[in-house]
Amino acid sequence: MSETAIEITNLVKKFGGFTAVNNISFNVNKGEIFGFLGPNGAGKTTTIRMLCGLYDPTSGTGKVGGYQLGKEAQKIKQNIGYMCQKFCLYDDLTIAENIDFYAGMYQTNRATRREQMEKILRQAELTESKDTITGNLSLSVKQHLALGCSIIHEPKIVFLDEPTGGVDPISRKKFWAIIKEMATKGITILVTTHYMDEAEMCDRIALISAGEMIACDSPANLKSTLMGNTLFEIEVDQVMKGLETLHSRPFSRDVSLYGVFLHVLVEDPKYEKEIRETLEEAGLQVKRIEKILPSLEDVFVFLVEKQQAEMKK
């Protein structure tokens, strides 16, 4: 495999008249944790399924592990790991039976199958529970088991489609520790998520919205360069009225809710005084205005709203 594990150029997927993925291009380097960040329905899962050889692209070209999309789908499937969004094991089988099934499906060498099973059980903290029916496990334990089964054949490229959806924060942290460890061993990982804290742990992120890739860079670069403006966090007594008051002002490039605060993007920090005066004239009590660095969520909201505005033109 070359230093580039995944190469995608102008990838498109249409279902009838609906375009699910629209002209996406990106490369993923060997050993990189590459994240897809976006809301449900953005096209993340459809893209992964094309890369895994489950869907043929409508147009565009690409290689996964050196194998061409569409033309060498079976070879791609044999050389990747894939953990789908919904739990993909069999609830009526025991833990050991599930592991053995996947080992056989991936044609794992029988001499190493026992060793791999012990490794998966240890990683999922199930060493003493291998005869437990899988359906009786908690969601977080199932996800750890599913990950182990998806990499039982030791692939060099792994696709994880929202692997921690619905999992508690502690289990998510453990799951990501495993992902980080895999990357240190040279395994390439493409993971989809809608959790901002998980996106921060990726080496690079592609921001996906309405089937389009609207940005791609490291989390640090996205936050430091993409917005290129001053961001204020504002605490007022009536946050929704504050949002409405500032939204149409000419100095506001973007105004959004961030929990119980307002985030206001302006071209110059000098507008702090004007922001305060505008809110107070509207009868609002301004408790705090503070210049802050943008979060990944700020960047994503800004870019999605910018994309939506351009689509309406």
TrEMBL record:
Keywords: ATP-binding, Nucleotide-binding. The keyword Oxidoreductase does not apply. It comes from candidate division WOR-1 bacterium RIFOXYC2_FULL_46_14. Residues 6-235 form the ABC transporter domain. This is Multidrug ABC transporter ATP-binding protein. PANTHER family: ABC TRANSPORTER G FAMILY MEMBER 20 ISOFORM X1, ATP-BINDING CASSETTE, SUB-FAMILY H, MEMBER 1. SUPFAM superfamilies: P-loop containing nucleoside triphosphate hydrolases. The keyword Nucleotide-binding applies. It comes from the Bacteria. GO terms for molecular function: ATP binding; ATP hydrolysis activity. SMART domains: AAA (SM00382).
